[in-house]
Amino acid sequence: MAHPTLPHSSLIPSPSPNSVKELTNSASLRSVPPLYATRNPETTIDIEPIIQEEIPTVDFSLLTEGTPEQRSQVVHHLGKACEEWGFFMVVNHGIPDRLRGAMLDSMKEFFDQMEEEKGEYAGKHVMDPIRYGTSFNSTVEDIRYWRDYLKVFAHPVFYSPAKPPSFREISKEYTACTRAMGMELLRGIWESLGLEENDMTKALDLHSCFQVLAGNIYPPCPQPELAIGLPAHSDHGLLTILLQNDVNGLQVKHGGNWVRVEPLPNSFLVNTGDQMEVNSQSTRMSIATVVAPSLNAIVKPASQLVRDEHPMMFGGMRYGEFLERQQASRLKAKSMFDLIRLHAE
Questions:
Q1: Which of 83, 222, 252, 280 maximizes the CB count within 10 A of its CB?
Q2: Strands 87-91 and 57-59
């Protein structure tokens, strides 16, 4: 699903910067270094056109405060969005604008620090509770993606970098709010599948759910036709709740076509499937909160959904093991599902 790379024989080795932001701060940058040239425009142009299509929208207030009839309609709509898209916009969620703005500002302050300050959190292991880095996993990649990131574990144990000073208080409030929203959305999804909330909460140990706060920055690129923010991939966890700044660049795949995401005002994009992030002229920043099962929970298809006509397609695996393997590997579409797939597609 990702675009093909340039032939290795055409690439000339060059020094590796610590981050894309450090690279773009250089006044001499006029072209994409070979290490980041992941696409060949002569072979990728017009192969996967980007279309305009309306992504489903979920009114959160009707899910939590609506009449029984309104809630039933939202639950049905939520179930269809998950089945047919894997993405939906959430509006009227009740998370204050001032908190959303403060989280974006505080994350930007982190990325604006000197490389030496951010480097204190350069991850040595994929499960470090605070990890700063570039690309996806530069230790195993032949090429790099045009993206820097900060990943912070927020639940069941909360962590925070020491700088900027505002980060701890803002991120603690923000992750608590998005975690609560995620749990309400999961209740609606369970209901749409005919599953009991208590059964799923117990099976996935959601009282000790794993939540990570991930900030992503995609600085301006001198040759956006060559570089890519992230390739096609699926996110780990149950739900990814995405907050974006005003620079568009996110695309989702639906019906075999890439659809450009144009966020509604004061909305979140909730992701249960593939995404691809691209950047061209302006700095794009996104903040994702991932709500996931407990790291020790064994995740497998709910027995209530397995029938003769719908056989079990995946075996069980401890979520923490799945996450660690996914984070330590190259980023490639849904390849991690091969670890637990019982039947070939």
A1: 252
A2: parallel
Angle at 32 between CA 247 and CA 263, to 5 degrees: 15
The count of other CB atoms within 10 Å of the CB of residue 134 is: 24
Quick one: pLDDT at residue 42?
Answer: 53
Q: Which residues of the chain have pLDDT under 50?
A: 1-16, 43-47, 273-280, 333-335
pLDDT of residue 24: 83
Q: Are 170 and 103 in contact (CB under 8 A)?
A: yes
Q: What is the pLDDT of residues 150-197, one digit of tens each?
A: 999 999 999 999 999 999 999 999 999 999 999 999 999 999 989 888
User: Which pLDDT score, from 0 to 100, does residue 7 have?
Assistant: 32
Q: Is 286 helix (H, G, I), strand (E, B) or coil?
A: strand
Provide the pairing of β-strand 257-260 with 50-51: parallel
Nearest-angstrom CA–CA distance, 142 and 144: 7
As a CATH number, domain 38-298 is 2.60.120.330
Q: Where are the beta strands (DSSP E) in 158-309?
A: 210-218, 230-234, 239-244, 250-254, 257-260, 268-271, 274-277, 284-292, 298-299
Taking the domains of the chain in order of start, what are their residue ranges? 38-298
How far is the C-alpha of 66 from the C-alpha of 283, rounded, in Å?
38
Q: Are 99 and 130 in contact (CB under 8 A)?
A: no
Backbone phi, psi, residue 269, to 5°: -95, 125
Distance CA 60, CA 227 (A): 36
Closest CA to 90 of 66, 62, 68, 121: 62
Task: Indicate the length of the chain as a whole number.
Answer: 345
